[in-house]
Amino acid sequence: LRFGMTRTQVVDLLGNPKEEYNSFRKLEPYLDQELHGPHYIDLLKRSTMLTFGDSDRNNQRPEVGFLDGRLDEIYLRAKTGVLFVNGVNVLGNDRPEIIVALAQKEKIMLFSGASYYFEDVGVRITAPKFWRKEGSISLYSREGFDKQMDLGHP
């Protein structure tokens, strides 16, 4: 997968999605125009998510996000494996070591709730303490990371 790909290119690579949804429609009952603002709501309206079923090797395929029809987010369950981002295996076993290694490549590391945000490398690590069962990794393009910040994340 490469940021900027179209929906058609992603489907050609990963197969037909299990589900496709618009974040705005999913969140609409909970949105407040004054509280969330028109810019946030506009981003949600322009965003589409695709989810894929498990592959034949039992690895969960990613959920991917599009903004204006272009791939800008890749969401992965954090199972042990290999995925290098700027020379750091973000799916490795030693979670604190991964966070420290990514932090050394950052000007500013953001922390909110149970998530670490690494803006320069475009990575969010969620729930590292509970990595195997509940944690996740999200990879973002520059536009995708800016969207996350606009969507009320730190």
What does this protein structure show overall?
The chain is α+β, with helices and mostly antiparallel strands. 31% of the residues lie in helices and 28% in strands. It has 6 helices and 10 strands, in the order αβααβββββαβββαβα. The protein has helices at residues 7-14, 23-27, 33-45, 95-103, 131-134, 142-150, and strands at residues 19-22, 47-51, 63-67, 70-77, 84-85, 88-89, 109-112, 115-118, 123-126, 136-140. The strands form 2 sheets. Strands 1-2-3-4-10-9-8-7 form an 8-stranded antiparallel beta sheet. Strands 5-6 form a two-stranded antiparallel sheet. β5 and β6 (88-89) form a beta hairpin. It is globular. The two termini are 26 Å apart. The model has no long low-confidence stretch (mean pLDDT 75).
Brief overview:
The chain is an alpha+beta fold and 154 residues long.
Biggest sheet strand line-up: 1-2-3-4-10-9-8-7
- The SSE string, one letter per element, is HEHHEEEEEHEEEHEH
Q: Ranges with pLDDT <50 over ≥5 residues? A: none
Tell how many strands the DSSP assignment holds. Answer: 10
What fraction of the residues are assigned to beta strands by DSSP?
25-35%
Sum up the structure in keywords.
alpha+beta, two-stranded antiparallel ribbon, 31% helix, globular
SSE arrangement:
Layout: H1 7-14, E1 19-22, H2 23-27, H3 33-45, E2 47-51, E3 63-67, E4 70-77, E5 84-85, E6 88-89, H4 95-103, E7 109-112, E8 115-118, E9 123-126, H5 131-134, E10 136-140, H6 142-150
Antiparallel strand pairs: 1-2, 2-3, 3-4, 4-10, 5-6, 7-8, 8-9, 9-10
